[in-house]
Amino acid sequence: SCCSFQVLLKSDAPTGDVLLDETLRHIKATETAETVQTWIELLTGETWNPFKLQYQLRNVRERLAKALVEKGILTTEKQNFLLFDMTTHPVSNASEKQRLLKRLQESVLERWVNDPQRMERRTLALLVLAHASDVLENVFASLADDKYDVAMNRTKDLLDMDPEVEAAKAKGTEMIWAVLAAFNK
Q: Which family does it belong to (predicted)?
């Protein structure tokens, strides 16, 4: 199945993004190829495997938040919870958030292509990640009821497709479908 596909490194050329480059180094350093599911667990810190600790990304959530703060998308605040303070990262750039929501809404409404092979890869990836993050309902929450229903139904149809079949159809989207399969598992 797709989520058991092994990740094979095609190029280790630097991307300019610290976390991506560190990920590439980890993938390159593995003795045997790991599956998409294993990499998701390692790179998100959702697993603790003593034999693979060297491949885990350290403090990945904090580092991602810091990068978004540096880009002006998030801000950093301290919130007090009775016995302890906690650092939070609320959105500081509402227009950027709205632009992203509008892009995803339009992709399943006005710009709906009814064929994942013709869908722009970044948009397909965003829809898959929004689904995996359980925020799709929030993405469509501002829509009128009829449009909300259309958006949710189209997205459900898209996400219910067979990842293995779709990955085989469209070169360059294999990883997107493999990630979907891993989260649907």
A: Belongs to the GOLPH3/VPS74 family.
* Confidence (pTM): 0.79
Q: How far apart are CA 80 and CA 161, in angstroms?
A: 44
Q: In Å, how far from its chain's centre is CA 174?
A: 14
Spatial separation of the C-alpha atoms in residues 131 and 155, rounded to whole Å = 9
pLDDT of residue 3: 53
72: left (phi over 0), alpha (psi -120 to 50) or beta: left
* C-alpha to C-alpha distance for 20 and 15, rounded to whole angstroms: 7
Q: Give the strand pairing for 84-88 and 77-81.
A: antiparallel
Read off the pLDDT of each residue in 38-57 and give the average, rounded to a whole number.
78
Average pLDDT over the chain reads 88
Is residue 167 within 8 A of residue 177, CB to CB? The reply is: yes
